[in-house]
Each structure stands twice: as C-alpha cells, then as structure tokens.
C-alpha cells in the first residue's frame, strides 16, 4: 500500500476516509474539530441559524432499482440538511458530464431530480455544467449543495449522545447498497431489492416533536450503521452497545449479504436515519417514527453507555460482545 | 454531429452550452427564466437577501502559471457571489479524486484553497470526498458552492443593462485561458503568461460605491468577454457595441492568440469583471477600479444601445462593425 497515493478506500466513508479527513483535508481547509463534524455546517447569520451542506454523487450504475443518481443527489443532500434538524429550502446542481453521454439518459436523470425536489419541497436555484473529454469521467457525476433553515433552538449534533440514551434506526438497513451492488454485478435475485432512497426531513419533523430529548440525528450512508455509530461514539466520547437481534433487515438483503460475505452493518442506506434520544422519550420517538411512512420498521437497536468512550460494541445473537470498528478498506465502491 | 449525445462544446459556455441549458437543464430543474439567470441565485430568507452559487472545476492541467485548480475553485465561486453584489461568507468543498492520485499534489491543492479562502475572508465550512476507480475521473475535480449576503438594496442583474450605459472591463482579457493552454500544450513562450485568477469581491465593493449607477456585474469566464456580453445583451434586450481598439490585451496574449488563431474575446478570464454602468457614473467607476490593485488596467470598452436588442457588435480597428456571436463549439476545453 503506497502511502503517497489516494486509494479507493479513502472514499469508503470508513477508517481510511477518516484518516484522510483528519490528517489532511479538514485541518488544511478549516478549523473544525472532530466534535463539530456533522452532515451539514450550521451557519449563524444575524442570529438566524442556517444549515449548509454539499455532496458529490458518483454512483455506478447511474440507474438502479428504487432510484438513480438524480434522486440520490437530491435526497442525499436534503437528508444532510435534515440531520441537523434544518428545514431544507434550496439546492444547487452541478453536473460533470463525460463527452458522448446520452442526452436521453441525462434528461431522465434531470427529470428525476426535479421530481425529487418537488416532492421534498425544495427548489433547485443555481447550477453549473461541465463536459470533459471521453474517458476523463464516468458518464455523469452530480454535485448538490443545500441550504436550509433551523426553525428551533435544539442542538442536534454528533457529539450529543449521553449515557442512557437509546439508539433508534428508522427501518431496515442495507437496502440501498445491496440494490446498487446487485444491479452493478447483474445478480439474479429471487425478489427485487430496491434502494431506500428517500427524503427524510418529514420524518425528522415528526421526531423533533420530542424536542430536547432528540440528541443526535444522522443518516448511515457510506460506511453504514456501524461506521456512523462509531463516529458518534467518538464525537460524544461515549460507548454505544448495539443489539444484533434488534436490527431490522429484509430477508433478501440478509441473504445477499450472507452469500457475498458482506456485513449489513457496513452497507450504505439512503433513506434511513439513526436517532439517539433520551431514554424516557425513546418509546415516544419510536411511535412517532412508526406513524410515518418512512419509519414503519423503526426499532430501538442499542443504547449509549458511560463506559469505554469511543467504543462501539455489538451484542451478538449468542450473547457475546465484540468491538465494532469503522469500515476498513472499501467494501462497495461508488455506492453513492 | 449526433444530437442524442453530449458534446464537448456543451461545456464551452458558448452557444451549445446555452442550447443545452435552455432546452433541457434549466426548464427541467427549475422555473428560472433567461432574464433571471445570473452567476448566483438570490434567495430571500425572512426579508434578508442571500446569494447562493455552485461551480465544478475540471481544469487541465491542475497546476498552471498563476494558480491551480484549488485557487480557481475558491476564487471562481467567490467571484460568482461577488457578481451579485454579495459579500462572500461561506464555501463548501467537494472533491472527486481518481484512485492513485498523488497525496502530495492533493495537499498542495488543499493548501492553495485554504490560502485563497483566507485571503478572500471566506470560510470553508463543509465538504465531501469521493474516490473513483482509476480511469473513471481525471485526477481531481473540485466543486465549490458558496453563500454570501447582500448588504444593500441594489438590483444587480444581467437584465439590467440600459441604452446609454457604458461597458467597463477591469483589466486585460484572455490571460487565464492562454496561461492554461500554454501549460497544457507545453508552448515555449518568450514571456510567461500567468492566469489572472483572483477574488474580485474587494474590487466589487469599490464599484458598489457608485450605488444605483451599477447595473450589471459579471465575470467573463468560459466563453470570454464576447459570450458574456452577448448573454447580457439578450437578457437586457439591448444592443451592445464594443470598441475593439479599447480592449486591454497583454502583448504576449495577443501574440499567442494570433499564432494559434484564437480570438481573445472568447478566451476565459478568472480575475476580471465586466461592469455595465450608467454613462454619467462611468468615469467615476473607472477611477475607482483603477485605484484597486485588480483594476489598474480597467478600460471603457463599449456601450449599450437601444437598437438591435440582443445584438453584440464589434467596432473594428478599421472602422467597420460586425456582429459577434457566442462562442460556437469548443475553443479551449477544460479551462476551468
């Protein structure tokens, strides 16, 4: 492994990504500490709080069951704003197109972006289009950035988990990553697995009804539930214990993971969130989530402890406990 | 020419870019009319005006005399905010890196971004990093999006040019495009040509001292001065007449253009702006610009007329007039 070169794993969202971010990118570009690293930045403009976020999408294939790069680009950025408790308002759309890309496919992606934006009540207000010569990009990359507004005084941040808090996931895990993988590799599955790609700010609005009991919200995309919870454990200097038996998992996703040797805890989601909430409000949050179409399969999957700050542990089916680390290397490249 | 495929020229900033934008991208993604298409969107949040913009940078080579993709990514987006008369405040930075890219070069680009952001008094507050497999991107692409605030009530927009207004350019044209081209093609030049890459919001603040006399500000990047003025002529439904003899041009740039058959009116700039201002304030604006380090070579290069709405004409050295169209096809790909 050549330390002087960027590797695929540096884009995994896992350990290598964090090393590159922590050692080089974040300290060079900004003065933001680990504790403050969230899905979006919170800007204060004359006493008003805005959220601002960006993501580039390089998913392969461009079209997959349940969505395409366009729906992903809109919903993903909407979700990053929502995870700060912000109401998403405005998006930018910047396209990098490979020369020779099909205009028809471009039109289909753009139509999906518009439909997703309309559904999420956000407006695409500014954009950019670049074209690079054949072979210098892979068909289409999309960047979306987003601006939203925080309409409350809550502090929702990755450093907010406290001992005793419960960890709730809004539904089945791994659907997006496995749907993209199955399409890319041409796997013949008995039942179709669809990406869960969806805008989560409506679900977040429900959850925020519990007010200050809501400590952390984060969508487990690249790196999956395990990597996201490990990040939160570190940021909050708390331990997190996950109950493996409680993890909602579609049988088809479980099956593909078993066959391919993938751990669903590390597989990306695009329409799920993790909420870490005060214990006394956990059931209320769970009920609110179950009452929303995107939270029907929500489940309490773990809790925050005061022991072992920064450690994520899995309580296994057979009753043991093992430490869970961030995704090492790259499990599924170009999943988003 | 296959109409079903995206061509390099669709990224030129010229005629094909406008066709793709007007026929497909803008109507699909938004309800923004031609008149309202500016370098940044102006958002109204509780009576306060914000500017929001995005650009992806795919310049080749990554490093060139006078800058690199990092300085370009920061200054370019700062300038798009500045052209709305906004004070740039916050940037996002999203990287798409090709597997195998040099970590050392990445570090150099990031350091340049930070230096440019510090110099422009903007903060990089959020980001994203993707890595794609070897051969699926060309080393490094950067998207920056920006948020700024409008601290005045002026309406500065591409549709604001009025008959009688003067057209001012802030300095010599074509420096950036020719610097990048010379580096890419390995041209041996007698004197170095450097990119003019710079943040223009300080210069804009000077110009805004003339208040309502300032009607349009725009930076002539892709497509150059000709394409930008043609856009403004269309948006304002006015004619613009350019005086060829008045155009500030470095002898070295003029020389390369002559040898290669390039028209400097179509060559990209990254540290120049066009200001269209009321005739009675033109000299005052010019003096303000000349008093700023980035406007020393500013010159009045033309005027707006009530004849021939949408038409851009060049008054040539020998006294004739010819219509100038937007850049057709692609003159210099991947210049930004």
Walkthrough of the structure:
- The structure is a homodimer of 336-residue chains.
- Chain A is globular and about 55 Å long.
- In chain A, helix 2 packs parallel to helix 3 (103-119).
- The first copy, chain A, is built from eight helices and 14 strands.
- Chain A has helices spanning 15-29, 69-82, 103-119, 175-185, 201-207, 224-236, 251-260, 282-290; strands spanning 41-45, 48-57, 63-64, 67-68, 86-98, 123-132, 140-150, 166-169, 214-218, 239-243, 274-277, 299-305, 312-315, 321-323.
- The relative contact order of chain A is 0.19.
- The mean pLDDT of chain A is 95.
- Helix content of chain A is 29%, strand content 25%.
- With 336 residues, chain A is α+β, with helices and mostly antiparallel strands.
- Chain A has a seven-stranded mixed sheet. A five-stranded mixed sheet of chain A has the order 1-2-7-5-6, covered by helices on one side. In chain A, strands 3-4 form a two-stranded antiparallel sheet.
- Chains A and B meet through helix 1, strand 1, strand 2, strand 5 and helix 3 of A and helix 1, strand 1, strand 2, strand 5 and helix 3 of B.
């Amino acid at each position: 492994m050549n330390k002087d070169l960027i590797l695929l794993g540096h884009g995994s969202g896992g350990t290598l990504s964090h090393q590159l971010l922590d050692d080089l990118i974040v300290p060079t570009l900004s003065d933001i500490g680990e504790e403050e690293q969230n899905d979006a930045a919170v800007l204060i403009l004359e006493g008003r709080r805005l959220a601002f976020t960006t993501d580039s999408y390089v998913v392969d294939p461009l079209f997959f069951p349940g969505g395409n790069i366009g729906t992903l680009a809109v919903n993903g950025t909407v979700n990053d704003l929502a995870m700060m408790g912000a109401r998403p308002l405005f998006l930018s759309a910047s396209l990098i197109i490979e020369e020779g890309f099909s205009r028809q496919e471009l039109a289909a992606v753009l139509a999906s972006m518009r439909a997703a934006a309309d559904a999420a009540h956000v407006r695409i207000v500014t954009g950019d289009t670049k074209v690079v010569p054949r072979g210098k990009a892979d068909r289409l990359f999309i960047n979306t950035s987003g601006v939203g507004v925080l309409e409350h005084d809550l502090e929702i941040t990755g450093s907010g988990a406290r001992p005793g808090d419960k960890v709730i996931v809004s539904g089945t895990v791994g659907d997006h990553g496995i749907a993209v993988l199955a399409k890319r590799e041409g796997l013949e599955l008995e039942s179709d697995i669809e990406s869960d790609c969806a805008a989560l700010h409506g679900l977040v609005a429900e959850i925020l009804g519990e007010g200050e009991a809501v400590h952390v919200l984060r969508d487990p995309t690249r790196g999956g539930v395990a990597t996201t919870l490990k990040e939160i454990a570190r940021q909050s200097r708390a331990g997190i214990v996950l109950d493996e038996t409680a993890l909602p998992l579609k049988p088809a996703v479980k099956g593909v993971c078993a066959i391919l040797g993938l751990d669903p805890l590390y597989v990306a989601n695009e329409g799920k969130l993790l909420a870490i909430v005060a214990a006394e409000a956990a059931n209320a949050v769970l009920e609110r989530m179950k009452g929303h179409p995107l939270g029907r399969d929500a489940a309490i999957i773990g809790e925050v402890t005061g022991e072992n700050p920064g450690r994520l542990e899995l309580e296994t089916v057979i009753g043991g406990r093992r430490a869970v680390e961030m995704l090492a290397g790259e499990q599924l490249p170009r999943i988003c």
